Structures are given as structure tokens and as C-alpha cells.
Amino acid sequence: MSPNLDSPIKTQMAVSVLNHTLNYEYHRSNQSDGKPSGRRRVFVQTETGCVLGIELDRADNAHTVKRRLQIALNVPTDESSLTFGDLVLKNDLSGVRNDSPLLLTRNSMHRSSSTPCLSPTGKDIHQQRDRSGPIEVLVCSSRCSRTRQLVKDVVKAIKIGVDPLPVHGGLGGAYYFRNTRGESVAIVKPTDEEPFAPNNPKGFTGKALGQPGLKRSVRVGETGFREVAAYLLDYDHFANVPPTVLVKITHSVFHVKEGVNTNTSGKAVDRKRSAVSKIASFQQFIPHDYDASDHGTSSFPVAAIHRIGILDIRIFNTDRHAGNLLVRKLEGATGRFGAQTELIPIDHGLCLPESLDDPYFEWIHWPQASIPFSGDELEYVANLDPVKDSEMLRMELPMIREACLRVLILSTIFLKEAAAFGLCLAEIGEMMSRELRGMEEVPSELEVVCIEARRLVVAEKVVVISPVISTNYDDTIQFDIDYEEADHPVMPKSPGFNLGSRGRICRNPLSRLDESLEEDDENIEQKKMEDTTSCCSAAREWPPHVSRLSTSLKTMSLAGKGGQNHRVAGGVPRANCTAGRNSGVHQGGNSRSANEHLPASVSFVKLADMGEEEWSAFLEKFQELLQCAFRGRKCRATGQRLGSSCQF
């Protein structure tokens, strides 16, 4: 298929993405606030939540940092790695920016009995003491100037004895920090108190920092910088996200699970007497009257829903429910119905997953989401630049993972193309949401396009393939490709394939493709297409193999069971929303294993395993296929009632 020259996102976008990703390591090595070789400060966090501020000089490397951490915190560092986002730090620390958070992770699950645990001398402890202040803003530029003043106000209050207040709701630990007048001005969420993190105060523990969390595509301890990313991406305060920064914060109010954090004597920290340092998100507290779950949603302003929805699409929010939309009444406001309230979106810790997941957009079924975008909204979307957005996040949040940035680029391109085509917010959200068939999830329409784009890219790379369809199907559909070593040179391992046994190449399970191109069902599918309304002629422009692929994915049950499609926002019933903030699952206060509560999740599309050239080619194919997907969506919306099953 040739590129659509009328598309608002030209194929040059993919070339631009390639040019930026090729310079990825260059940018990583030049993010030291203009001081690549001078003294810097970093904040090292262990996987159990301990935090230490360390001053670096030119002679420091990963080994010396781990040694100093071991002396100061009396924690074992053998068989451990020092990581900075995607980077595993070795000898060179030049790519680490000033005031960056680092994570120390163990390479093995269990500590060896022979691992030495030093007994530091008083001199050693004094030399390695954390000399940072009560609150230190991490890796933040001038964009955070508004929040820096707020931090100063909170520090003044702490010094005169104004203690923060714990937040009793939710699954994770959170605290209201106050100013000198006792007013709540900020909400702080420590990363080691997230759901399933080591020091979670609600009993949801069982995971170390860096492991899969509440959403398997979001790691434990990494929701904080996602909160900051949502604020940084909300240009011109378009969606009204409160100012947010990442901080190292020290206070005795924080929760410490007995036996997790240790002091220099190796005993459990008594948080009533000892101040504990944490890495946390620090967000301005916005006074409000209630949240959206306490109010009729039909009265909310259309523009507010559209703007929040646009942000949610861009950041691939997997947790937008009514409970994290604050509502503030505007005194004296008059005019159109709904103009007297303001919406404030919060809780963006589950955005920007590392792979395409199942988003949750509660606004999908709100009437405002079905109203077309305004001219101002379309202009805002048209001016979005996903490449510049990703570069900005690399600079402002250098610990962010490349996989998260690829999801941002993909979802922003999808939003721009869909809005330009004329789809409304509800239609865009529905195309991103998975459906339930029986008890199994099937890929969303967005994922179907991604799967096909990936297949086309791989097909162009493979010169000679001979598909062999296995007759023994299981839940993971795989296709073996015969490979005769004697007739062909050794092929390099492609990101889209895994080497199977006996020299064969097996398709990665994420590519759940129906490649039975020899099936004689083309006439049947054509007949089905002809039985629809006349507007479906646009959908028939899909290449034959794409039509069969899409139909197969949309009609099969991944567990081999039949059943009727049920469109559910986010792919799960409302009561089983990932956030679970109002579901009562945390009542009782007993400790819970993370493995007992993590929902089963399927990853149909992963973006991180593609090289730069393949990623660029994938985006080109993705954009080409989108136009046909949009025409199919419009066709089905015209020919069928909302909520019925549909096919490309």
C-alpha cells in the first residue's frame, strides 16, 4: 500500500523517529546539566526502598558507588547491578545527570550465605552520610519552577513541626504535606509504598522495586516519574494536570515495613524516632469539592472531558476512572450547562506502559465523548509532535525507559491520524480498548493494526520462508518456518522471532497472526462484506490477507471457547478496574501476596524488541494501515448499533 499523502502525519515522521533513536546514546551521554565531568549528586535507591544521596566526583564509577552505599546503609551489594532506567551502569557514569535517581537491584533472588556484610566504622559512616536537605527536587529543569516554591513552603513547615497527614484511601501510601498555616498544599507518594512495593502500608506487598507491578507493563517503583511525565506532556495546562515533580524526601511519617529497611545497626527502623528518606512524586494539592464518582457526569463541560481524553490517549492511560477526576465548583460561574465546574485529572502513575496494554477510559460512555472535537482541540492535536515529546522526556526524565517513549509516539500518531480522519473521542478510545470474549481478552483494533504492521515489516525482511501451520494449537499460536541450513546462509536472529529447536525459527508469541493464506475462504469473507451497508466499500480496500487477519483475530477466542462479544471499557467489568480504589479489596489490613492479586494480562504487541530501522519501518506500515482501519470503524458505526460485534 502506498503512503497516504493526505495524512496529517507524513511518513517522514518515521524517518524523524529513526534519526532521533539513532542519536539515543548520544543524548544519554550528554545529559549532565552541561557538567559531564564535574561533581554531581545522585540518589541511590535499593530495591527495598532505602535511599542515599551520594556526591560523585570524576573518579567514581558503579563499583565505588555500590561500595559507598554498602558502608552507609550496611546493605550487601555483591551480585547487584546499578541501573539508570534502561542502562546498567558499569565503570562509566558520565551519562548520569545531576540529581538523578539510581536503582540498586539484586541479580539473584536469594542472598548467598557467604555475602559479606561490613561493619562500618564511625569514620566511614560520617564520610558517607547523606548531606542532602529534607526535600530535594530530582532531574528537573525550569519547567518545575512553580513547584520549587511549593517545596520551599513545605520545608519551612517541616522545620517548625507541622507534620504531614497520611491518606487513608487507595492501595498505596500517600501523604498530605502542609504549609506553615497547616493547609494541605502537596500530596506525596513514595515509590516504595506503591501497591506490592516492599513498604506498602496497606498490606499489598511481595515485590521488589523494578519487578512487574499492579499492571505488568508498569514496574514497581516507576509510577512516580510517570506522574511527572503526564504533567510535562500537558502543554499549556491543556488538561489541567497539577504541577508534579520527583523528589527525594525525608520524614519520620513514612511507612517502613519491619525487617525491610535497615539502619547502620541492622535493626528495623523505628519510624517514630528516625527520619526515613524516600523517592516520591510530589504533586500540588488542588482543593476540590468531590470527585467525578460522586456527581452526575452528564453535567461536566464537554471541553474538559475532551481535553482530559486527549491526554489519556497520548499517554495510553490504563487507569482513568471517575475517582481520579477531581471536581471543583466555580463560584459565580454562569452560562451553558456544565460550565460551572472544573475537572482536575490526577493519578497518572499507570500511564506510558512498556508495551501496549488494555487502557481504561471511563469517559468512553459519557455523552461528551461522542461529541466531535472543536476547532481549537483539533488544532492542539495537529500541533502535537511525538518525536519532540519523547526527546523532551528523555531530557527531563532521563530514567524513563525507551519502551515507554515508543508507546507515547505510537499513541500520539494514532490520536493525530484519528482526529484528522474525523473520529470522536469515544471512537478513538474504543479502538484502543480490548473486548472480552467469554473470559478471554482479544486484541483491540489498534493492536490488530500493530500486529499486521509488524507482520508486513518482518515479511519484507525474510527473503525465503515456508510457513508450516502446526495442527496442535494451544493458547499461544505459533508458526514454524522451515529453514534448510544447507541451502541458505545462517540468518541473524530477528527481533520478531525466537530461535526454536532443531534450527527452526518460531514466531514470537506476541505476533498472534492468522497466516493461513492458503485457506479458500476469500469468497465467504467477500460475501460477508457485500452484505453490509454500501459505506463498507471503503473497508474492502484492505488487502485480502489483512482482511482475513483482522476477521480471524476479532472472531476467535484465544482460549478456544466461543461466545458473544461484549464491549467493556478497558476490557474488564467496571467492578474489576485495575485501580480498585473503591472496590474494597484492601479492607481487613492483612498482608497479601502480590502474586495472588495480579490480574492475568496478555501482551499482544511489544515495541521494545524492535531495532531502530525496524521501528521506523513499523511506523510507516502502521500509518498506512490506519486509514483503512478508520474507514472500517466508520462503516461499522453506520451499519450496526453501538455495542454489537463487528469485523473489519
Give a quick summary of the entry.
Pfam families: PI3_PI4_kinase (PF00454). With 648 residues, this protein is an alpha+beta fold. Among the domains are: 67 residues, Phosphatidylinositol 3-kinase Catalytic Subunit, Chain A, domain 1 (Ubiquitin-like (UB roll), Roll); 138 residues.
Molecular structure report:
- α10 runs parallel beside α16.
- The model is unreliable at 1-12, 21-37, 108-128, 261-271, 469-525, 527-600 and 641-648 (pLDDT under 50).
- The strands form six sheets. This protein has a six-stranded antiparallel sheet, sandwiched between helices.
- Among the domains are: 40-106, Phosphatidylinositol 3-kinase Catalytic Subunit, Chain A, domain 1 (Ubiquitin-like (UB roll)), CATH 3.10.20.90; 132-257 and 274-285.
- The longest helix is centred in the last third of the chain and has 28 residues, at 612-639.
- It is an alpha+beta fold.
- 29% of the residues lie in helices and 15% in strands.
Given the structure, what is the number of helices?
16
- Biggest β-sheet, characterized? 6 strands, antiparallel
Shape, per Cα inertia axes: globular
- SS class: alpha+beta
Give the low-pLDDT segments. Answer: 1-12, 21-37, 108-128, 261-271, 469-525, 527-600, 641-648
Rg of Cα set: 26 Å
- Count of DSSP strands: 23
- What is the share of helical residues? 25-40%
Q: Mean of the pLDDT scores?
A: 74
Distance between the termini: 17 Å
The largest beta-sheet arranges its strands as 6-11-12-9-8-7
Strand content: 5-15%
EC number: 2.7.1.67
Family: Belongs to the PI3/PI4-kinase family. Type II PI4K subfamily.
Protein name: 1-phosphatidylinositol 4-kinase
GO molecular function: 1-phosphatidylinositol 4-kinase activity; ATP binding
